[in-house]
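Quick board copy: two proteins, each given as sequence then tokens.
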Amino acid sequence: MRNMAAGAVQYTNDTDLVLKFQSVKFGNMSLVELQSLLEIKDKQIYQLTKELQEAKKEIEHNAKNIFSEELPTPKPFPCQYKMPKTLHLMTQSDKTESLCLSTSRLESFFVTGGADLTIKKWSSTGRKLLELPGSEKVVLSVDVSPNEQFILGSSADKVARLWSSVSGKLLHWLQGHLDSIFVGKFLNHSKVITGSGDRTLKIWDIEKSICLRTTNCFHSCSDLSTATDPDHNTYISAHSDNEIRFWDTRNSDCLWTSAGLHSKRLTSVCVSPSHTLLLTSSRDNTLKLLDLRTRAALFEFSRPTYENPANWSRACFSPDGRYVAAGSGNGCVMLWDAKTGEYEDSLLSEKSSPFVSVSWTTESLIAIDRSGFVSLWN
């Protein structure tokens, strides 16, 4: 413990110094009392060290979960899904024009974007939770990450931005497109895909804010669907040349291009919850249902009064995949049966403004219109 040299005492380590300090401070204490005190201090140090180690593990676990592949479990839907009937809520979502809509995986919130340059986060009942500024031009597309940690907004200012869905903090800018970004979608927990008027598709690493791959897609991209397979190896794009294209996420290969699917530009593509069907919508005022396994068209949905109102209009499936919904230029949301191809019903709001995007949850059907309002039907 110590060395004797030239009549001086030299302490070889920190423990000896501590003992010297304690011998001075506690000189009047017996050896037994001092030993007991040291044992108490040792227990306190051990407990503190244990708590610090547990806190470190929790911090590392939480940081890892931000980009975790583990997904929240969606709400189960009834075996017999009921058609929405009653207009439950109608509230202003944008000061000018609403352009885009997306629902979180757990359906606990949805987000909207529009011409007032902001993205808004709403509760499932229609209460505004957050307002996310930052875009310099109109917001053309919004999406929520699979783990619900992030909100992606794509804008006409050629930038896609990533916000925290919890704090509303702007986290990342994804810059590199040469024209408006019409759509941005999460590929998985850490990657997103954007489609632009510059005729390219880009895959981004959101942890590093870098572009991993740029693909020439030949025509302006209107929409994307990334929910094609569990392994995220394929995604689908919709284009201004009236066609859809299938792409391999591992390279830039175009796997398949439709031929004569629609007579005017595509505005949306949506994969069914079963991952077996694809719904397309077009400015030719029709929607088509394709079998993803054979890529054959099964049904065409249309009505004399149905009109696709915008180049960014989005149609959707019901949560059980039984029905499809699309907003119309005549101020209603039209519903069709995906099993029979038959028209089912139309949902009306208190306004006659065209509905440009719809999203269907287990609780409500949500739609936004060009006058800046969001409507929820039970």
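And the next:
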Amino acid sequence: SRCGRVLGPSLDKIVKNAAWRKHSHIVSSCKSALDKLDTLSDSALSDPSSPLLGLSSSDADFVLNPILLALDSNYAKLADPALESLFKLFSLGLVRGEIGSNIPNSILYKIVQSVCKVGGIGDESIELAVLRVLLSAVRCPCVLIRGDCLLHVIRTCYNVYLSALNGTNQVCAKSVLAQIVLIVFTRAEEDSMDVSTKTVPVSELLEFTDKNLNEGSSIYYCQNFVSEVVNASEGVPDLKFSQPITGPELQNGESKVSNGEEKDGVEEEETKEGVESSSDGVTSKIREDGFLVFKYLCKLSMKFSSQENPDDEILLRGKTVSLELLKVIMNNGGSIWHTNERQLLCSIFMSLITKYRSGLKAEIGIFFPMLILRVLENILQPSFVQKMTVLNLLEKIVGDPQIIIDIFVNYDCDVDSPNIFERIVNGLLKTALGPPSGSTTTLSAVQDVTFRHESVKCLVGIIKSMGAWMDGQLKIGHSDSPKSFENDTSAESHSTSTAEDGTLADCELHPEMNSELSDAATVEQRRAYKIELLKGVSLFNRKPSKGIEFLINTRKVGNTPEEVASFLKKNTTGLNETMIGDYLGEREEFALKVMHAYVDSFNFKSMDFGEAIRFFLRGFRLPGEAQKIDRIMEKFAERYCKCNPNSFTSADTAYVLAYS
């Protein structure tokens, strides 16, 4: 049989190199396998569950067992012929099937694990043989190495690269790693096993790092080493799969709906590694493995050194090669990496809002404007696909009454958060009205009508959800109401939400409203407070003195210089730093007192003068007028000398230095 012609010489060599007493069981197994191979011939009807082409499953396990025993011996003279036979089996396409932790008793799974293990015995020739076998196994179109088993293969090559003493072995390991990653992601692009992949140029891998290994002879050897393995399986089309090994295929960035059954084996392992498989869909196996490898490389690139050894050179090299492999992925990435990104982002974002919003208030406040509002508010030149994806997401969001209420209460009624609900409504309204007359837009007439229709649907959905939420409150009466965005906060905390300094304390919506009228009044007060505060901030950014006067009159800020200085120093969201500096430099009596209080609030003790002035100026920008700068710097010099009496002979010296 063809398998016999490959395995026979290697088994003879294992018998010849074995120590008769120490390896007697291996010798016995090899002789039994040789006898079995002499009686076998290629079967016309191949066993689909067999790991070897042309043999039954039981016969294949029997003849591969001595190869496994030779690898497990950790003896180089036995491992070398075993690895040679495996390379030939993989490169000729005689091995087939899926290799993963879902079938841990499989002889192929055990062999791959043993190959990875024998790579750490420290023998240079064995390291190269292991690299060759692992690359040929991944390259073989008849074998699908999956999940944690694939990660183990990558980790073995990674460890050889970091630990090898021979420079050539290091370059070979790095090249094999890059080639394996390229094969995995080329298959993920095509969602097929049988794909043609280019060979990674070794010289490019050494362009920025490992320059000390960049020698002509070493590069030439490693390039031939990789090319030989990659090209070894060419020319045997009859041994390749006629159909790709795939699960449900991706369609438009989303997965098909499955029957909801739980998966086991390797997919449980993948969940541990971070490739989450939801009950309503799965990606194809090949693409799952691609994303699994990508996440694993990201984890390797983010490893931190220990406190005992902060300058760990091996860790640094490991992070560097991980980043280089990610660069290989990006440089060779196709459509799977740069299409439907808004759809995927919005899908993830919807899950966060639906399930985890109670713990991600600040994060959602940052990402909502970036991912959703930025696209929604682009009226003239939007991407049709992106905006439709965002409108579809908003349609789902506005369909949940509790999410709408939570967004309004926790963002639009919070002085430290953006007005998300207001911007959603305004963005939808502008989209529904369409581009202004006379403006230039990239939208076709059909696209414009589609946007208008979807926007109106979302606006109607908001009204319906708000009505449904109110109906629910009225029907429930004093019973429990739906869960809200944040943790429990009593009605008492709402009534005392305005702090002594005039700012609004951090308030959260009570999930179990004992008094709907009280809470509604509190929410209304919070919203009114924020609107008035933002009005004052806007006025301050145009005319600082009038803005401060407005904020004092509306009791948003105290009427003492110290309270105003504290308000400016906190740099409330929306305050213009240039206008803060302009106000601090004013010569009016109250503004001057505010500037003095502002400077006196700093403690410059034990600070270097340059450090102190940088620390002082980080909250505002110096005005353009020389007299205003003069007043600010004079007070700064006085304060610095008061905190550091021995630093200068007089405050005038510090003033001259600060002004210069």
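Board note added afterward: Residues 339-476 form one domain.
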